[in-house]
Amino acid sequence: PITTELPGRVNAFRTADVRPQVNGIILKRLFTEGSEVGAGQQLYQIDPSTYRATYDSASATAVATGAVERRYKILSVAQAISRQDYDNALAADLRARADVETAHINLIYTKVLSPLSGRISRSLVTEGALVTAGQPTALATVQQIDTVYVDVTQPSSALLRLKREAASGLLVQHAAGQTTVHLRLEDGSAYPQAGTLQFSEVTVDQGTGSVTLRAVFPNPQRL
């Protein structure tokens, strides 16, 4: 057997920062720090009162403009008003509907949802904090770790050798064309789950000529 041992660093399979998309005061935090959360699960509640009022106002305006548009359509067919008057009424109705949709979206955004399933970090804000849309500071971070990446670094010449061995059959590959790898933990113990090496996920450091190979490991126990 040909064995190569390389130091590696474990990274989450997917990582997402949770940020607000509207301005407001945080009323509630709805998760336990360090727990598992699901995609679409509500994490925070931003004060929705002003956004609800804006939505109600936009809805009322849309009702009025819709009624005008319908009346003007009948009058336009009867040639009692100019076509321009009807076009203006139709445009006003479409703008009012767009305002309703925008207000509705902003109202929905007062519920801050998890973008993916995974383990959530500690909360970086508390109830009563003022948050703004697009702020640089995340409210929390969610990491998907049921599968993890292990990134290992080695000289590019070693990568060429590995590719030649894989092509010649010296490295046993499974049906997807990937090579099986095993992981040894920091305390020297063997990780029970086997992973696969992805030759396609290669990054070359132009300064040192070394390459970073990425292996994928299942992590059902979140170890």
User: What ranges have pLDDT less than 50 throughout 5 or more consecutive residues?
Assistant: none
Largest beta sheet, briefly?
Answer: 7 strands, antiparallel
Number of helices: 3
Computed over alpha carbons, the radius of gyration is: 28 Å
- The number of E-state strands comes to 11
Amount of helix: 25-40%
Form type: elongated
Q: H/E series, N to C?
A: EEEEHHEEEEHEEE
Sheet-strand content, in percent, reads 25-35%
Alpha carbon gap, first and last residue: 28 Å
Structural class: alpha+beta
Average of pLDDT: 90
How would you describe what is shown here?
This protein is an alpha+beta fold and 223 residues long. Helix content is 30%, strand content 31%. It is built from 3 helices and 11 strands, in the order ββββααββββαβββ. Strands 1, 3, 6, 8, 9, 10 and 11 form a 7-stranded antiparallel beta sheet that branches. α1 (49-77) runs antiparallel to α2. The longest helix has 29 residues, at 49-77. The mean pLDDT is 90.
